[in-house]
């Protein structure tokens, strides 16, 4: 995200106002799925004030090699935006993306932690499990950094 543009700064200020606190974390998940819920192939913006984790997507025009293309039968865009308390995160693990996709399709968690071999040769996603059993799959840039940050936020909340 270009943090120097006026639009970006305004966008981030709006998100801080919505949360009532400064943003302490923001990233982009290039693939997203909520077990029994929504899936976004093009990803979601993920951000937090250390208390609440928020994810949202944006309407996106399809492109081919960076050139916009028109769809004949464009589906109506429905914005995805939701949140959950950081304190409710029970576990974060790394799983193969194929297992996350299968879990989403079956609406049942079929995933197992990725082994060393999977981590090297397969695409992996972060599996975020909440205390109430809700499961999110997110393809994050820095899985280990995300875990470290969540632990810090949860420690501060105690």
Question: How would you sum up this structure, described in words?
Answer:
- The strands form 3 sheets. This protein has a 5-stranded antiparallel β-sheet with strand order 3-2-11-10-9. It has a 4-stranded antiparallel β-sheet with strand order 1-4-5-8, with no helix packed on it.
- Helices cover 28% and strands 30% of the residues.
- The longest helix has 15 residues, at 143-157.
- The radius of gyration is 17 Å and the shape is globular.
- The chain is built from 4 helices and 11 strands; from the N terminus they run αβββββββββααββα.
- It has helices at 6-19, 97-106, 116-121, 143-157; strands spanning 25-29, 32-34, 39-40, 44-48, 52-56, 63-64, 67-68, 81-85, 89-96, 124-130, 135-138.
- The relative contact order is 0.17.
- The protein is of the alpha+beta class and 158 residues long.
Cα end-to-end separation: 32 Å
Structural class: alpha+beta
- Rounded mean pLDDT is 90
Give the overall silhouette: globular
Notable features of this structure?
single chain; alpha+beta; 11 strands
Record the SSE blueprint.
Layout: H1 6-19, E1 25-29, E2 32-34, E3 39-40, E4 44-48, E5 52-56, E6 63-64, E7 67-68, E8 81-85, E9 89-96, H2 97-106, H3 116-121, E10 124-130, E11 135-138, H4 143-157
Antiparallel strand pairs: 1-4, 2-3, 2-11, 4-5, 5-8, 6-7, 9-10, 10-11
Explain briefly what this protein structure is.
The protein is an alpha+beta fold. Helix content is 28%, strand content 30%.
